[in-house]
Design brief:
This protein has 274 residues and is an alpha+beta fold. Helix content is 51%, strand content 19%. A hairpin with a 2-residue loop joins strand 5 and strand 6.
């Protein structure tokens, strides 16, 4: 029987819901074990040999693995320049992300036979490295970890969750209309733009969005607005009121509340920790 690393063995994790480690080439845990919590492993540099659920693999730079409580694993070796960021979080905390990102995200992470493993694209690598540099400084670590996990979940939404849908044979004209909504002018206009581009009534549009994308038109537009705002906060110097206006919010306070509820961090905290 493998050892179980329990929540109460890590006081910070039990009290704050989050705990992180940077390995800096030190020898990784070579004893096979379970966790009573989730662990997200990000390979910052180098590579390592990982054993999980009876399968060996080589984790490369910028690769991410999301371990669940039912997974058993250990490390079997690593390169000299390896540096891993390990983020542990409780089930209570990851459930908050599932509530924000939906059941499809939970299914993607939790229900597979083996833990989810993927490599970040160049944009996300850049974002992760910026946030990682803040972790080294050590300021407001829990907020920084939440922002980092939000980035990872956004990457999964864009590359795994949404992209499961094309096998449903979406009508080309309809998919073109939905993709056109990523234009900021249409994001600002919102639902009327999607109705006009799709040439469907509101009732038909609701039915088709649910059928092909498992999301309502309102939820889809909200998602686009929040993602656009998130990127502007991270990659521009625009003030938050201007950003709110650019994505179609008439109420600045409503924008702040919506953004904070979506990502678990306010726009000001997000920008401060970049």
């Amino acid at each position: 029987m493998y050892k179980t690393l329990k929540l109460e063995e890590i006081p910070d994790l039990m009290n704050k819901g989050y705990f992180y480690q940077l390995t800096y080439s030190r020898t990784l845990n070579q004893e096979i074990h379970y966790h009573g919590f989730y662990e997200i492993i990000i390979v910052i540099s180098g590579q390592c040999k990982h054993f999980v659920n009876g399968i060996e693999s080589i984790l490369q730079e910028n690769e991410v693995v999301i371990l669940r409580p039912q997974d058993y694993h250990c490390f079997m070796g690593q390169s000299l320049n390896s540096n891993l960021l390990s983020i542990s979080l409780t089930e209570e905390e990851i459930n908050k992300f599932y509530m924000l990102y939906g059941e499809k995200m939970r299914d993607l992470i939790y229900n597979g036979e083996n833990p989810l493993s993927f490599k970040l694209d160049l944009i996300r690598q850049f974002m992760i490295n910026k946030i990682y540099s803040k972790i080294i400084i050590g300021s407001e670590v829990v907020l920084i970890l939440k922002a980092l996990i939000s980035d990872i979940f956004n990457f999964l939404i864009e590359n795994y969750v949404i992209h499961e849908i094309p096998e449903k044979n979406i009508p080309l004209k309809f998919s073109d209309a939905v993709n056109s909504m990523k234009n900021v002018d249409y994001i600002v206009e919102g639902l009327p733009a999607l109705i006009r581009l799709s040439c469907y009534s509101h009732t038909q549009l609701c039915r088709l969005m649910k059928k092909y994308y498992d999301i309502s038109p309102k939820e889809y537009i909200f998602k686009l607005r929040m993602e656009y705002a998130y990127n502007m906060i991270k990659h521009s110097d625009l003030d938050f009121e201007t950003i709110a206006e650019k994505i179609g919010y008439n109420s600045y306070s409503h924008f702040i509340t919506s953004f904070t509820n979506k990502y678990g961090v306010s726009p000001s905290k997000l920008r401060k920790n970049l």
